[in-house]
Amino acid sequence: MSASRGGAARQAAPVFAALGDTTRLALVRRMSVEGPLSITRLSEGRGMTRQAITRHLHSLGRVGLVRDTRQGREHVFSLDLKRLEVAREYLDYVSAQWDAAAARLKAFVEAEE
Amino acid sequence: MTTDTDQPQTTDRIEKRFEVNAKRSRVWRAISDAGEFGAWFGMKLDRPFAAGATVLGQLTVPGYEHVSLEIQVERIEPEGYFSYRWHPYAIDPKADYSAEPTTLVEFRLEETTGGTAVMITESGFDRLPSSRRAEAFRMNDAGWTGQSRKLASYVS
């Protein structure tokens, strides 16, 4: 496990860096809800130019979070959820909350005994 | 305290098993009495737990007092089993979680020589939309602190 952890560290740091921006997080969220989207759709309602959105998408693409495919004349972007390992991360988060709750329950019932 | 049941392949459920030095009847009261449940969990519940009841909770955890949640009680079997459904850690007050699938939380109690074994499971995560899972990355300070800690342990 520790051997793969070192590799995971080198892979994880740039991913977190790419996600450390509200616009890019919003783009990730939209793609995770709506699936693959064109630049046109991703630019809607963001108050930013297509060029600015494209730059953000390329930042996400460089760390492997987003895939870029062509459909006719449009670029379509989609999320690479495996790269993000979001399912595992989310479960880790909820799991930590239950650890804390379990510790509080234990302290609570043992206080009177 | 170590409570993890090791299940590295599963993304659908979380299981916690731990022992407490207290009688089963005492632990049962702590999980089945809404007032006591709220005391250790960190929320104020608006009515007693009863099978089929919907109980509203308001978090009392500092910084999260604005968060309310709904607990749909499923089954109560005195001193042995208690289950409910909820939207797990639905803590964004601006988001509408009502259309999303819920997860099932189950408490099981067993008498042991030293006291009581408590098993908590939460299941149904695979049915949640991926957007909820992505929240681990944006959810709140605690999430980010956890992520930074993980990064720190990766690099050290």
Q: Give me the secondary-structure category of chain A.
A: alpha+beta
Biggest interface, which chains?
A-B, 41 and 47 residues
Kindly name the structural category of chain B: alpha+beta
The value of Rg of chain A in angstroms is 19 Å
**Top-tier CATH class of chain B:** Alpha Beta
- Helix-strand topology string of chain B: EHHEEEEEEHH
For the record, the count of structural domains of chain A works out to: 2
Number of separate strands of chain A = 3
Radius of gyration of chain B equals 17 Å
Helix fraction of chain B, binned, reads: 10-25%
Bin the strand percentage of chain B.
Answer: 25-35%
Flag low-confidence runs of chain A.
1-9
Overall average pLDDT of chain B? 79
Order of helices and strands of chain A: HHEHHEEHH
The share of residues in helices of chain A is: 55-70%
Q: What is the global morphology of chain B?
A: globular
How many helices of chain A? The count is 6
- Helix tally of chain B equals 4
Q: Would you kindly provide a written description of the structure presented here, covering whatever features stand out?
A:
- The complex is a heterodimer of chains A (113) and B (156).
- Chain A has 113 residues and is α+β, with helices and mostly antiparallel strands.
- Chain A is built from six helices and three strands.
- Chain A has helices at 2-19, 22-34, 39-43, 50-62, 81-84, 86-110, and strands spanning 37-38, 66-71, 74-79.
- Chain A has two domains: 2-79, Arc Repressor Mutant, subunit A (Orthogonal Bundle), CATH 1.10.10.10; 82-113.
- Chain A is elongated, with a radius of gyration of 19 Å.
- Chain A is 69% helix and 12% strand.
- In chain A, strands 1-3-2 form a three-stranded antiparallel β-sheet.
- Chain B has 156 residues and is α+β, with helices and mostly antiparallel strands.
- Chain B has one domain (13-127): 2-Layer Sandwich (Alpha-D-Glucose-1,6-Bisphosphate, Chain A, domain 4), CATH 3.30.530.
- In chain B, strands 1-7-6-5-4-3-2 form a seven-stranded antiparallel β-sheet.
- In chain B, a hairpin with an 8-residue loop joins strand 3 and strand 4.
- In chain B, helix 1 (24-32) packs across helix 2 (34-41).
- The longest helix of chain B is centred in the last third of the chain and has 15 residues, at 141-155.
- At the A-B interface, helix 1, helix 2 and helix 6 of A face strand 1, helix 1, helix 2, strand 7 and helix 3 of B.
